[in-house]
UniProtKB/TrEMBL annotation:
It comes from Microbacterium jejuense. Keywords: Signal. Residues 25-58 are annotated as: Disordered. It comes from the Bacteria. Residues 1-21 form the signal peptide. This is Uncharacterized protein.
Length: 192
């Protein structure tokens, strides 16, 4: 092979290597990690409640019959509930609930709170009211059209500031009961 041709081939090879090197480039160094004083914000994962909200058709429990905040206050004090069927006089009310809230670890003399609720037909309501009145309970009209039936102050063990002991509030289709008339205000059933 003649010398000029060899030089030409060598020059083409050298230029090819140079071109490949220029096109391929040298590997770039990885960027230096930067530090920032600003905190990194990560959006929190959405949470869902495992406790379903009670509906108007649901049956109440001792924990849903009264306000969540009241339940929390009771629990802080070591007060728990015991659920029983609701009786009005001698009549057990189907689907009714009576809740006794107390510190059951304390001696029996420890005071507790009573809250109850039930659906009632007109006939059940009339029969229950008549039985209570026959036993000496006192009837009083409520401002909203309901009827209060309160135990006689002669037999009441616990009374509120106004002298009312255990009291039933009969309204259309339901009855509420508490150990005092003022206690009826704490019953939040049915939920709106």
């Amino acid at each position: 092979m003649p010398a000029p041709r060899l030089l030409g081939t060598a020059a083409v090879l050298a230029l090819s290597v140079l071109a490949l090197t220029a096109c391929g480039g040298s590997p770039e160094a990885a960027p230096e990690p930067t530090t920032s004083s600003a905190p990194t914000t990560v959006a929190p994962e959405p949470t869902t409640s495992t406790t379903p909200e009670p509906t108007a058709d649901a049956a109440p429990t001792c924990a849903t019959l009264i306000a969540d905040s009241l339940v929390a206050d009771y629990e802080k004090l070591g007060v728990t509930s015991q659920e029983q069927p609701l009786f009005i006089g001698s009549q057990q009310i189907d689907g009714g609930i009576l809740c006794m809230w107390a510190n059951f670890d304390q001696p029996a003399g420890d005071a507790g709170q009573i809250y109850g609720w039930a659906k009632l037909s007109d006939a059940e309501s009339d029969a229950a009211q008549q039985e209570l009145l026959a036993e000496g309970w006192v009837r009083e009209e409520a401002d909203d059209g309901g009827v209060y039936i309160t135990e006689s102050e002669n037999t009441a063990l616990v009374t509120d500031e106004e002298g009312y002991g255990m009291t039933y509030l009969f309204v259309a289709g339901q009855v509420k009961v508490a150990d005092t008339k003022q206690g009826l205000l704490l019953i939040e059933w049915p939920k709106a």
